[in-house]
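Tokens as discussed.
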């Protein structure tokens, strides 16, 4: 029986319900009124009392079912009898008093239930009235705000209408003014077209006259050159005649026939007294030509970028294989110098082939050199970069001033060598090419061409080694190089380095029998 009562208490889920009510009271405590919180707390207490009552009933069933404490006088053996039974009206030894207590408790529960219901309804009514009043106040405030906004919108609408009317008036006046300006411009355009139609023949005549003037100037230059050549020839003939007049005449000899002098063509030899005339700016051989100026500035900037970026990357690569910082600097400098040398050599061969090819079909008004330079400017990329790179690497292998550890090739800086060859080729294709200055170790430091490094001895007059070459155009310095000066720098300075096996074999190779025979013969 007791187990059945406990099972019903579990199935009723009253204890979880009481827990949920407690959580709800805690969450909404600040939002509820004091009376609502009081009612909810009393409701939880009543539910707790009901649970206690059911548990006490189960306790009575347990005591009645026990074989040891089944007598009516054994209730005092359980300590909770004296605590719970007087409070809830359960006395196991008196059935009449228990029935009276049950009836009284039922009446009390009914009265409490009615009171709670009435109080809950009153609380709900008060809450509804409060909420209704608050909503009415909010609606009234929203209505007042809407009325104020409506008035503001009406005033803004009126102002916008006034501005729109004024803008229409201004746009109409502006449109009239624009139409008047358009009419005036159309009239000016018509007058200008009439003037242009009258001036076009004059412009054509002026262009024709300019061409004739330029042709006459060229003819005058040629005539001056021919006159200078003839003057030189006349002076030479006069000197010959004077020398013959002063020398004794051999009467027995056969009279000499006058020597027929062939006039020298101005295109074969340049007269000494005829100064070269200035080329026009549209000639590809002119230093002021747009291609020459633009490419020269671009190549100078790329030369500086090669120093600041690619050189440092190559130095980092070399540092992974060789710790000698000075040797790495010499390798970079030698690679750049070798790249310029290879590029100039290949460009000279290619230019000879281009000149012979262009000369077969050249018929234009421009000279052969101008036609060749135009072809070079249009076909600047016709070069074999991998072949040039391999030639530079071969030249570095033959250089006795630089070295790398055994098993390491100069191809580790292949990127720097390729960029240097490309830059050197493009500098060589200019009408006025750019080139690096000649540099040798132990030369006197030239402040106009080089700047000293941070680790240089500024009082030393001689260059120990070069870090970066000087870029020049003829005798003009375009970009300064960099050199390291130290005291005691000389051409025969000994450097400890690891020679490659190929160089050691070449140096220590045995002499041939012919050489040994010659040496023995010279000794005897």
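Sequence:
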């Amino acid at each position: 029986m007791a187990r059945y009562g406990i099972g019903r208490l579990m199935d009723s889920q009253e204890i979880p319900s009481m827990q949920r009510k407690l959580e709800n009271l805690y969450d909404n405590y600040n939002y509820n009124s004091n009376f609502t919180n009081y009612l909810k707390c009393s409701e939880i207490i009543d539910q707790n009392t009901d649970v206690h009552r059911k548990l006490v009933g189960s306790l009575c069933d347990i005591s009645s079912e026990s074989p040891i404490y089944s007598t009516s006088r054994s209730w005092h053996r359980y300590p909770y009898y004296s605590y719970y039974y007087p409070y809830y009206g359960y006395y196991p030894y008196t059935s009449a008093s228990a029935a009276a207590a049950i009836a009284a408790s039922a009446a009390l529960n009914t009265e409490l239930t009615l009171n709670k219901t009435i109080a809950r309804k009153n609380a709900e009514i008060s809450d509804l009235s409060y909420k209704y009043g608050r909503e009415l106040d909010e609606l009234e405030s929203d209505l007042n705000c809407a009325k104020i906004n409506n008035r503001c919108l009406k005033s803004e609408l009126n102002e916008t209408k006034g501005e729109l009317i004024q803008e229409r008036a201004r746009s109409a006046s502006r449109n009239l003014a624009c139409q008047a300006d358009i009419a005036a411009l159309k009239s000016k355009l018509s007058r200008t077209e009439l003037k242009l139609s009258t001036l076009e023949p004059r412009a054509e005549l002026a262009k024709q006259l300019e061409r004739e003037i330029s042709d006459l100037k060229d003819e005058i230059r040629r005539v001056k050159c021919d006159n200078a050549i003839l003057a030189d020839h006349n002076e030479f003939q006069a000197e010959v005649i004077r020398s013959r007049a002063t020398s004794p005449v051999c009467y027995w000899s056969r009279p000499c026939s006058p020597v027929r002098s062939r006039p020298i063509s101005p295109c074969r030899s340049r007269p000494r007294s005829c100064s070269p005339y200035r080329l026009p700016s549209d000639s590809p051989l002119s230093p002021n030509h747009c291609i020459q100026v633009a490419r020269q500035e671009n190549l100078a900037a790329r030369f500086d970028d090669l120093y600041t970026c690619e050189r440092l990357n190559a130095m980092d690569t070399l540092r992974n294989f060789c710790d000698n910082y000075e040797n790495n600097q010499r390798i970079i400098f030698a690679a750049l110098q070798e790249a310029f040398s290879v590029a100039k050599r290949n460009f000279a061969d290619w230019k000879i082939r281009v000149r012979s090819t262009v000369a077969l079909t050249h018929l234009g008004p421009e000279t052969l050199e101008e036609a060749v330079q135009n072809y070079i400017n249009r076909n600047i990329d016709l070069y074999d970069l991998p072949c040039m790179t391999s030639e530079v690497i071969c030249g570095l292998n033959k250089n006795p001033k630089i070295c790398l550890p055994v098993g390491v090739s100069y191809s580790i800086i292949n990127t720097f060598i390729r960029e240097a060859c490309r830059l050197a080729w493009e500098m060589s294709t200019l009408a006025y090419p750019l080139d690096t200055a000649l540099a040798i170790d132990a030369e006197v430091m030239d402040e106009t061409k080089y700047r000293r490094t941070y680790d240089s001895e500024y009082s030393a007059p001689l260059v120990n080694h070069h870090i970066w070459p000087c870029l020049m155009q003829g005798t003009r310095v375009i970009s300064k190089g960099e050199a390291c000066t130290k005291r005691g720098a000389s051409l025969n300075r000994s450097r400890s380095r690891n020679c490659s096996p190929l160089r050691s074999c070449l140096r220590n190779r045995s002499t041939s029998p012919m050489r040994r025979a010659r040496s023995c013969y010279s000794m005897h």
